[in-house]
């Protein structure tokens, strides 16, 4: 093989240097700055995108914090409203219970008074009926007429 002949090494190295120089100056030198600009542009775009993402994350965190604070405030306000409503309802129920207790106490007092009047009337009627029945029983059994005041005195002595 001629390429392995040591006499041909010098011309081969010369042609290698010439082809390398042509390729370097014809292809690499014109395209390398363009590739560098593209890489720099991409790095700049990535950096600006990262900055925008960081900024958006900060804004999102701020919005989330405001949202959480708003929800906490709304929750506290709602709980305060519930407590107030319960207290108002409790006071309303308490006042209504007092009114009902007063009405029921009045009705109980009226019923007790009517019961006392009815009881006294029943006792009076019972006493008169007992006296009359005792007088009739004595009259039928013995044939004697005993006056009502004597029968009442005798019944009173029995108690």
UniProtKB/TrEMBL annotation:
Keywords: ATP synthesis, Cell membrane, CF(0), Hydrogen ion transport, Ion transport, Membrane, Transmembrane, Transmembrane helix, Transport. One of its GO terms (cellular component) is endomembrane system. InterPro entries: ATP_synth_b/b'su_bac/chlpt, ATP_synthase_B_chain. It is found in: Cell membrane; Endomembrane system. The chain crosses the membrane at residues 12-32. It holds the Pfam family ATP-synt_B. Its main location: membrane. GO terms for molecular function: proton-transporting ATP synthase activity, rotational mechanism; proton-transporting ATPase activity, rotational mechanism. It is a single-pass membrane protein. F-type ATPases have 2 components, F(1) - the catalytic core - and F(0) - the membrane proton channel. F(1) has five subunits: alpha(3), beta(3), gamma(1), delta(1), epsilon(1). F(0) has three main subunits: a(1), b(2) and c(10-14). The alpha and beta chains form an alternating ring which encloses part of the gamma chain. F(1) is attached to F(0) by a central stalk formed by the gamma and epsilon chains, while a peripheral stalk is formed by the delta and b chains. Component of the F(0) channel, it forms part of the peripheral stalk, linking F(1) to F(0). The b'-subunit is a diverged and duplicated form of b found in plants and photosynthetic bacteria. Belongs to the ATPase B chain family. This is ATP synthase subunit b. The gene is atpF2.
